[in-house]
Amino acid sequence: MATDEIEAQAPAEADPEAEAAGALPADGGPAERPARRDTENWAKTVGTLSVGEVPTGAVNLNVQGRRVVSPLQGFGRMWQKTYRIRFGPVRVPPGDVIRAWKQNFPKFWPEQGKFFGSMTGIAPGEVALLNLSMAGRAKLSTGVMVLYADDESFTFMDPEGHMFAGWITFSAHEENGETVAQVQPLIRANDPIFELGMPVIHRREDRFWEQVLRNLAAFFLVEGEFSKESVCVDRHRQWKYWTNVRHNAAVRSILHPLGRPFRALARLFRRKRTG
């Protein structure tokens, strides 16, 4: 396993590479999109997220009615991480890799995470629910929105309360005659609580995305060579966003089961009033 971790000083302003990629500005709305990209591949502008039919076994919490947030709206230091797996001598067209990835995305996730996408799959504007394991038996319920998707890549954006404010881009390309599959997050911790946990979260994320890429390669009967790179592109914490903690999905996921008796009583009183 090859590992290259770098910490670099960078301005606190927006990441110019992210802006050039046509991601989103600070207000969360679509930026001016590159002319070479078809606008149909981008999610339409929405004020808040709307979850459709909830799949069996999924928990719809911390997603419905939330706004999506870019790295410019997060609290912690900004990181760009790059995870890659090289297919070596096995020739698989990058387009086939992306097609299989989008069609089988939940199957490639490790057991500690559940991805509940819509019936239409990975498509621009679709909202997926995530149920992730935390310490002990606790579960973190959150989600993602598909910001962009085409035949070469797709990008997720996180909602308020997620561990991260940012984007995660999944892609495949040829490099020196080899097929390379890649996961590239550009993220900040969403609030001070998640920022305190980032040393642990980083390690869990590294293991998580390595397993995803290895599962993807195994789908094509490839063992693959994994590598990762981590760059701190902004060391500043954005204290004006400390109030993001009110949406913290981990805290709300832990407290939600404790409120079941009170929610049951509230439903009972509502039925009596209408009865």
Describe this structure in words.
- The chain is an alpha+beta fold and 275 residues long.
- It contains six helices and ten strands; from the N terminus they run βαββαββββββααβαα.
- Helices cover 24% and strands 29% of the residues.
- Strands 1, 2, 3, 4, 5, 6, 7, 8, 9 and 10 form a ten-stranded mixed sheet that branches.
- The model is unreliable at 5-36 (pLDDT under 50).
- The overall pLDDT, averaged over residues, is 82
Order of helices and strands: EHEEHEEEEEEHHEHH
The end-to-end span amounts to 64 Å
Which structural class is indicated by helix and strand composition? alpha+beta
Contiguous uncertain segments of 5+ residues: 5-36
Q: Quick one: biggest sheet? A: 10 strands, mixed
User: What percentage of the residues does DSSP assign to strands (E)?
Assistant: 25-35%
Shape: globular
Please tell me how large the radius of gyration is.
19 Å
Q: What's the total count of β strands?
A: 10
Helix content: 10-25%
Number of helices: 6
In short:
Helix content is 24%, strand content 29%. It has 275 residues and is α+β, with helices and mostly antiparallel strands.
